């Protein structure tokens, strides 16, 4: 059982994370800068710290920590930072996959029961079906519009986040499932905004805000879903 002092510390760290996320929302369209990067990174780094303080699973702490590293890279606009950010989130999604597999029915080994769990509820099957359509569609749209050096990393990343969302659908926590779907939606909008929507389009304003809200809220829901177990 957590002591009152420990609970206060955990609550303060979580509140700081939410505060940083809200502050970054007001800076999401600002030019890249070091203070902007720090605020963005702090939001997810503090979620990782909250998970650690609460004794959350190591895979959760690691996934959130890598997410904060990815945030630091993606706070800049150059291609090198984008590649490193993509790599950070790729590993984070792999950790989430392992976490979801461990905590889903059948553990790490029984994939038949996991498939049965997804197909047992219409809403789970519908989400899985929508993802199965969305991922190849996004890949087909992105391939002609990105450089050859980015094609393989983008395909691998798209498939990994697809598996991440599918494994989340095997869990009993609707909170974690919603968080994973929001995270996936955020990445889809980010990719569309970066590669598919013309730079002159007025849609970038709402897309930037949507990416951040869906991303942070998704990570928050996943974290709180596991910490409440």
From TrEMBL:
Pfam families: YhhN
InterPro entries per record: TMEM86B-like
Keywords: Membrane, Transmembrane, Transmembrane helix
GO molecular function, one term: hydrolase activity
UniProt KW Transmembrane helix keyword: yes
Membrane topology: Multi-pass membrane protein
Family designation: Belongs to the TMEM86 family.
PANTHER family the record matches: GH04784P
Protein's recorded name: YhhN-like protein
